[in-house]
Amino acid sequence: MIKTISKIAIAGLLIASFTGCDKDPSPEEEADFRCKQEGELAPKWTCVPFADDAYAGVGSAEKSGAGMNHMRRVAIANARVDLAEQIKVNVKAKLTNYVGTTGAGNTETVDKAIETITKQVARIDLAGSKQIDSWQTKAGTLFVLVSYSENTANSAIKKNLKTSFNNDQAQWQQFKAKNALESLEKEFE
User: Fold this and answer.
1) How many CB atoms lie within 10 A of CB 66?
2) Is 106 exposed, middle or buried (0-12, 13-18, 19+ CB in 10 A)?
3) What mean pLDDT do residues 86-104 have?
4) Predicted TM-score (pTM) of this structure
């Protein structure tokens, strides 16, 4: 009888230890990386805007008594602000890399040239941007996804860059001359 009770007790301990290890974590313990807006699941593009071969920006507008048309205009305007900031940062990064590799010696003048050129180059017309998707929360907030072709942006940037270099030609030439003089001085030390 003692053997039977011992066997049952050991079997019970083994079963309890196995089921204790198999416990699923509660929902609070698991990280949820799905896109959510205002506490509800949302399309992924509302969190991470994307479009093939294009810059993509997201804008939103809260529910308004002025109607859906007004909300859409506000959301698109906000998305275009997002697009403009992305393009500006992209232009600045490309110019920094370009100018940084052409300079020699003291590069403080380079920063000024980059800033001046960036302000002129980043002023591109977003009239070619278009709404490619929209989504509305249960609370009524409207989200829109707006894209702007990378090819169109790059063409406008190249055109503005040429104009910008011509507008700042005196400053650019002064920068090049200063670098050339510094290089000569180093050779004759």
Assistant:
1) 11
2) exposed
3) 61
4) 0.59
Would you state the structure tokens that stand for residue 179, as one six-digit string?
Answer: 């670098």
pLDDT value at 91 more than 50: yes
Distance CA 52, CA 30 (A): 32
Residues 6+ apart with CB under 8 A from 182: 104, 105, 106
With a cut of 60, say whether residue 104 has pLDDT above it. no
Which of 101, 105, 74, 92 is closest to 177 using CA atoms? 105
Helix (H) or strand (E) holding 3: helix 2-21
What's the Cα-to-Cα distance from 40 to each of 58, 136, 173, rounded to whole Å? 17, 11, 56
pLDDT band for 184, please (50, 70, 90 cuts): low
pLDDT in tens, 167-181: 555 555 566 666 666
Q: Which residues contact 84 (CB under 8 A, 6 or more apart)?
A: 122, 126
Q: Counting beta carbons within 10 angstroms of the beta carbon of residue 113, is it exposed (0 to 12), middle (13 to 18) or buried (19 or more)?
A: buried
Here the tokens at position 99 are 């100018």
Q: Characterize 135-165 residue by residue with b for buried, 16 or more Cβ atoms within 10 angstroms of its Cβ, and e for exposed.
A: bbbeeebbbbbbbbbeebbeebbeebbeebe
Measured in whole angstroms, the distance separating CA 138 from the mean position of its chain's CA atoms is 26
- DSSP track, 157-172: HHHHHHHHHHHTHHHH
